[in-house]
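User: Please fill in residues for this 633-position structure.
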C-alpha cells in the first residue's frame, strides 16, 4: 500500500507531466501566441523541455532498482530534481544575454553548465543505461586528454570551463538539434500514440490483424507481424513494443506450434522493423529529417520500399517456418462471421485520423503540426462515433497527455546526452577524424567503407534504444560515408537501419531479451534466431546503396522492377534462413537460395536474370520425390 508521501509524489509527477504535455500541444497549435498570451523562443522551449524531463526522471527513476522506494533514494531524487530545476532556470535567465554578446560567461555560468552536464550523465544512466553514459563520458572527457594522444586521434586540448561553456551555451551542444526534435516532433507523436492507445486503437488493430489472417497457415504469427508493425510505427521503441504486444502475440504463436525461441524471435524482429516502417518511423526519423535538412515526407518515401521488402521477407519466414514445423491452417470459427468492412467501419475513428496524418505530411505539413491536427480529428471522430461528450473523454485525454509525456522522458535524456557527443565532436574535430579513419582503413573502396560503417554502427548501437543509437551514429559514423561522396540521405538511412537492427544483434540485443523473457526461452537462442530471421534488414542497406531504385530515386519502370525482383529475392532469403523450400534444405542448397536472394535484391537486369535462373533451378532440383514428413527441428 502506498504511503501518503508516495501518493503525493505520484500525483505531483502526473500533474507536471500533464502540464508539460499540454504546454507543448498549445505551443504547436500556436493559439496562445495568436491570443497574445505568450510567445516562447526556440531556445526557451528546449531549456524548459530538458528541465522538466530531468525533473520528472529524477522523481520517477531510482538510482538503482534495489533502492526503489527507499527513503534515501527518494530524497536523493528530489535533490537532483531541484538541482536540475535550478540549473535550467539559471540558464533560462542568462542565455539571451550571453548569446547576444551583452555579457561574457563567468564562473557561475561555467559551474552551472558543468552541473547540468553531470545531471544529464546521471539521468542517462538512470533512464537509458550505463552504456550510453560511458560513451558520453568518453566524449565529454576527450578534450581534456586529446592533446596527449598521438597521430590522428590527437587534438587541441580544452579546459573544463571552456567545454562546459561550449556544451551548454552554444546551440550546437546540449540544446542543439536532438533536444529540439524531442521538444517538437517526438513528444507530439508520443502523445498522439498515447491518445490512440487510450481510445482503443490497440484493440482495433489486433482485431483487424486477426481478421485479415483468419484461416491462413500460421495465422497467429501473421497477426503478430501486422499488429506489432502497426503499433511499432508509433511506439518508437523496439523493446517497449515487444513488452506491450509480445504478451498477446508470443503465447498465441506458441499455442499455434512455434517453438518458444521462434515465437520470441518473430516478435523481436517485427517490433524492431516497426522503426523503419513509414509513416511514423519511430522517433529517430524525425531527427534525421532535421539533420539531413529534407522534408519528413522525403524520409518516408525513401524508406518505404526497403521497409516493405523487410516485412515481406518476415512474412515468408513466418510462413515457411510454419510449413517446416508442420503447422496447418486452423479451421475457421463459424461463429466469427464479422465482416472485414464492419470492423473497418467500427475503427473509422482511428483510420480517418491516421490517414489524415499521412496526407498532411505528404502535402508538406510539419510532422508536429500533422500530429496535432490528427489528435484533434481523433477526438472529433470519437465524439461522432460515441455520440457523447462526457467525463470519460476528458479523463482519457488527460491520461493520454500524461502518459505520452512520461514515455518521452528517456528519449529526451538520450537526446540531451547526444548533444554532449555532438558538441564535443564539433569542438575538437573528432568527428571528421573518425570519418578519416574509416576512409583510410577502407583504402578508398566504398564497399569496405560500408562494411566498416556497418560494424561501427552495430557496435555503437548495441544496448541503446533506437533513437539514442541513431543520434550517436549520425554524428560519429554518417560523415564518413558523406565524405566519400555518398548522398547524405542514403548515408543516414544506411546507419539508421543498422542502428535499428542493433536491438536484435547478439550479444547485446534488447528486443530479443525482452521477447525471451515473455516466451520463457533461452536468451541466446532467441537472440541468434532473431538475427537470422531479420537478416534481410542487414542486407537491404547495401542493396539500396548500390540500387537507388529501392529509395525511389529512379524511373518508374526501374522502381517497379526493383520491387518485383526484391520481393522474389526476399522469398529466396527467407527460404535460405528457414531451410525450407518444398522440403527441408541441406546446407549447400540453402546457400544456393541465399545467393539467388542476394542477386534478386541487387538492382540490375543481369543480377535479376541470374537470380531467377538459380531460383528456377533450385525449384526444379529440390522437388520432393515423395511426401515428406514436416521437420520440427
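Assistant: Residues filled in for all 633 positions:
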Amino acid at each position: 500500500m502506498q504511503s501518503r508521501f508516495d501518493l503525493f509524489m505520484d500525483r505531483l509527477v502526473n500533474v507536471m507531466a500533464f502540464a508539460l504535455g499540454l504546454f507543448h500541444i498549445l505551443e504547436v497549435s500556436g493559439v496562445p501566441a495568436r491570443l497574445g498570451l505568450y510567445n516562447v523562443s526556440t531556445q526557451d522551449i528546449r531549456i524548459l523541455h530538458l528541465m522538466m524531463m530531468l525533473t520528472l526522471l529524477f522523481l520517477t527513476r531510482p538510482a538503482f532498482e534495489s533502492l526503489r522506494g527507499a527513503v534515501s533514494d527518494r530524497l536523493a531524487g528530489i535533490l537532483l530534481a531541484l538541482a536540475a530545476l535550478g540549473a535550467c532556470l539559471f540558464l533560462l535567465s542568462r542565455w539571451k544575454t550571453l548569446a547576444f554578446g551583452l555579457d561574457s560567461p563567468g564562473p557561475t555560468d561555467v559551474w552551472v553548465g558543468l552541473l547540468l552536464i553531470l545531471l544529464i550523465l546521471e539521468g542517462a544512466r538512470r533512464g537509458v543505461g550505463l552504456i550510453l553514459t560511458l560513451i558520453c563520458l568518453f566524449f565529454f572527457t576527450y578534450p581534456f586528454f586529446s592533446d596527449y594522444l598521438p597521430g590522428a586521434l590527437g587534438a587541441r586540448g580544452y579546459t573544463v570551463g571552456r567545454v562546459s561553456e561550449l556544451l551548454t551555451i552554444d546551440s550546437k551542444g546540449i540544446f542543439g538539434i536532438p533536444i529540439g526534435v524531442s521538444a517538437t516532433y517526438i513528444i507530439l507523436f508520443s502523445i498522439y500514440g498515447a491518445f490512440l492507445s487510450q481510445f482503443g486503437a490497440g484493440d482495433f488493430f489486433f482485431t483487424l490483424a486477426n481478421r485479415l489472417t483468419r484461416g491462413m497457415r500460421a495465422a497467429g504469427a501473421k497477426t503478430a507481424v501486422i499488429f506489432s508493425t502497426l503499433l511499432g510505427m508509433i511506439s518508437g521503441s523496439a523493446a517497449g513494443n515487444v513488452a506491450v504486444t509480445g504478451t498477446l502475440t508470443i503465447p498465441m504463436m506458441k499455442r499455434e506450434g512455434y517453438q518458444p525461441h521462434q515465437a520470441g524471435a518473430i516478435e523481436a524482429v517485427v517490433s524492431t522493423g516497426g522503426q523503419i516502417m513509414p509513416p511514423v518511423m519511430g522517433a529517430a526519423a524525425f531527427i534525421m529529417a532535421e539533420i539531413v535538412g529534407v522534408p519528413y515526407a522525403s524520409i518516408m518515401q525513401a524508406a518505404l520500399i526497403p521497409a516493405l521488402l523487410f516485412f515481406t521477407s518476415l512474412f515468408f519466414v513466418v510462413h515457411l517456418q510454419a510449413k517446416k514445423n508442420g503447422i496447418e491452417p486452423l479451421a475457421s470459427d463459424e461463429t466469427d462471421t464479422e465482416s472485414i468492412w464492419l470492423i473497418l467501419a467500427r475503427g473509422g475513428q482511428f483510420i480517418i485520423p491516421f490517414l489524415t496524418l499521412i496526407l498532411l505530411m505528404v502535402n508538406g505539413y510539419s510532422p508536429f503540426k500533422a500530429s496535432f491536427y490528427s489528435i484533434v480529428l481523433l477526438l472529433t471522430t470519437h465524439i461522432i462515433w460515441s455520440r457523447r461528450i462526457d467525463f470519460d473523454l476528458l479523463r482519457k485525454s488527460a491520461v493520454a497527455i500524461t502518459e505520452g509525456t512520461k514515455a518521452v522522458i528517456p528519449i529526451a535524456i538520450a537526446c540531451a546526452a547526444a548533444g554532449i557527443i555532438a558538441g564535443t565532436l564539433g569542438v575538437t574535430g573528432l568527428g571528421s577524424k573518425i570519418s578519416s579513419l574509416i576512409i583510410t582503413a577502407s583504402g578508398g573502396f566504398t564497399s569496405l567503407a560500408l562494411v566498416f560503417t556497418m560494424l561501427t554502427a552495430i557496435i555503437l548501437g548495441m544496448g541503446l534504444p533506437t533513437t539514442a543509437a541513431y543520434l550517436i551514429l549520425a554524428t560519429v559514423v554518417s560523415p564518413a560515408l558523406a565524405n566519400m561522396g555518398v548522398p547524405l540521405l542514403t548515408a543516414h538511412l544506411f546507419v539508421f537501419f543498422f542502428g535499428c537492427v542493433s536491438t536484435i544483434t547478439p550479444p547485446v540485443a534488447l528486443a530479443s531479451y525482452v521477447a525471451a523473457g515473455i516466451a520463457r526461452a533461452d536468451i541466446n537462442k532467441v537472440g541468434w534466431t532473431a538475427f537470422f530471421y531479420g537478416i534481410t534488414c542487414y542486407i537491404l542497406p547495401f542493396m539500396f546503396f548500390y540500387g537507388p531504385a529501392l529509395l525511389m530515386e529512379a524511373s518508374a519502370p526501374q522502381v517497379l522492377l526493383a520491387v518485383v525482383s526484391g520481393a522474389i529475392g526476399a522469398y529466396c532469403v527467407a527460404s535460405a534462413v528457414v531451410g525450407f523450400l518444398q522440403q527441408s534444405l541441406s546446407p549447400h542448397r540453402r546457400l544456393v537460395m541465399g545467393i539467388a536472394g542476394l542477386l534478386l535484391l541487387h538492382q540490375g537486369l543481369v543480377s535479376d536474370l541470374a537470380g531467377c535462373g538459380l531460383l528456377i533451378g533450385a525449384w526444379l532440383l529440390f522437388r520432393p520425390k515423395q511426401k515428406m514428413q514436416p521437420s520440427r527441428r
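For context: Residues 4-175 form one domain.
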